Amino acid sequence: MIKLVNVGKEEEQILHNLMQFYIYEFSQYLPVITLENNGAYKPFDLTPYWSNSNHHPFFIKRENELVGFALVESATETEPNCILEFFVIRKYKGQGYGKIAAAELFRMFPGKWHITQIEKNVPAQAFWRSTISSFTGGKFTEKFVNGKFIQEFDTNSLK
């Protein structure tokens, strides 16, 4: 059973710990990402997730085990919903857990969506194309802008 669990401010360090694995894997696509002098990657600034009502941090859990996280920015009057960061640990990749979690996010935040991947991250492109296509029945658009692939769709048009 896969579930999304809101991350509370008191769990911020747990999220930072999990994000170290994400940054490590992502560093293969962006050589500019390097370890700090303390042997860890520079932590993300998670301040907006505790101070902005449009930012939503989630743990992805299998039963009670952490298997990943998702950082979502929900839609505003001018911007669509957006998955800012999304990660499933290697042990569970390819088992459908990410697709289940993504579909749950699409249901939690209905409306327009905008999801991006950098050009070098081919596995992420394949994951998002497949996941979005399955969820929307192929009703999405994709474009390539400034070194990023962008998929766009509207969950309200699926009803």
How does this structure look, described?
It contains 4 helices and 7 strands; from the N terminus they run βααβββαβαββ. It is α+β, with helices and mostly antiparallel strands and 159 residues long. It has a single domain (2-158), classed as 3-Layer(aba) Sandwich (Aminopeptidase), CATH 3.40.630.30. Strands 1-2-3-4-5-7-6 form a 7-stranded mixed sheet, sandwiched between helices. The longest helix is centred in the N-terminal third of the chain and has 15 residues, at 12-26. The chain is globular and about 50 Å long. The two termini are 26 Å apart.
How far apart are the termini?
26 Å
Uncertain parts = none
Level-1 CATH class name:
Alpha Beta
Query: What is the approximate shape?
Result: globular
- Rg, Cα atoms, Å: 15 Å
Strand content: 25-35%
Main sheet characteristics: 7 strands, mixed
> What's the architecture in CATH terms?
3-Layer(aba) Sandwich
Tally the structural domains: 1
**Helical coverage, percent range:** 25-40%
CATH superfamily: Gcn5-related N-acetyltransferase (GNAT)
Number of strands: 7
Rounded mean pLDDT is 96
Give the topology string: H per helix, E per strand. Answer: EHHEEEHEHEE
Number of helices: 4
What features would you highlight for this structure?
single chain; 29% helix; alpha+beta; Aminopeptidase; seven-stranded mixed beta sheet; 159 residues
Question: Briefly, what is this?
Answer:
Helix content is 29%, strand content 31%. With 159 residues, it is α+β, with helices and mostly antiparallel strands. It has one domain: Aminopeptidase.
Architecture blueprint of SSEs:
Blueprint lengths: L1 E5 L5 H15 L21 H4 L3 E8 L2 E9 L7 E8 L8 H12 L3 E7 L3 H15 L4 E5 L2 E7 L5
Parallel strand pairs: 4-5
Antiparallel strand pairs: 1-2, 2-3, 3-4, 5-7, 6-7
